[in-house]
């Protein structure tokens, strides 16, 4: 399990809607992390993962729409990163669903927590930051 990831203004891109969505993703991650630490039941965990998947999908769609509307030159590359993240998440979710014991399911959830921690930290600091800088240079914000 990883430590909670508190939101910091260092993660802000200066895009209010995206920053708000990122804050919410941090909150969801911390809720998941706390649920794992507290030993929340598998049924609750399955519901939680479904909610997280939906929120991630909405967030990615919003970012990609914003990129398209502003002619972001790396839209294709950024969308490919989103596709990879969704694929990795879905793979872990399938492993969770196919696990034959609650212990195995919890191990998958713990792996998912590590995956999400890395994604939040790396993706926002690198790929999303590049997009934020692009919008600021273009004077869109």
Chart the SSEs and their pairings.
Elements: H1 16-38, H2 42-69, H3 75-98, H4 102-137
Helix pairs in contact: 1-2, 1-4, 2-3, 3-4
Structural class: mainly alpha
Give a quick account of the main beta sheet: strands, pairing sense, barrel closure.
none
Helix content class: over 70%
Total strands = 0
Q: Measured on Cα atoms, how large is the radius of gyration?
A: 16 Å
From the spread of the alpha carbons, the general shape counts as: elongated
Low-pLDDT parts are none
How would you state the average pLDDT, rounded? 88
One letter per element, helices H and strands E, the order comes to: HHHH
Distance between the termini: 37 Å
- Helical element count? 4
Strand content: under 5%
Short note summarizing the structure:
The chain has 141 residues and is mostly helical.
Keywords:
141 residues; mainly alpha
Write a structural description.
There is one protein chain. The chain is mainly α and 141 residues long. Helices cover 79% and strands 0% of the residues. It has four helices and no strands. Helix 1 packs antiparallel against helix 2 (42-69), helix 2 (42-69) packs antiparallel against helix 3 and helix 3 runs antiparallel to helix 4. The longest helix has 36 residues, at 102-137. The radius of gyration is 16 Å and the shape is elongated. The termini are far apart. The mean pLDDT is 88.
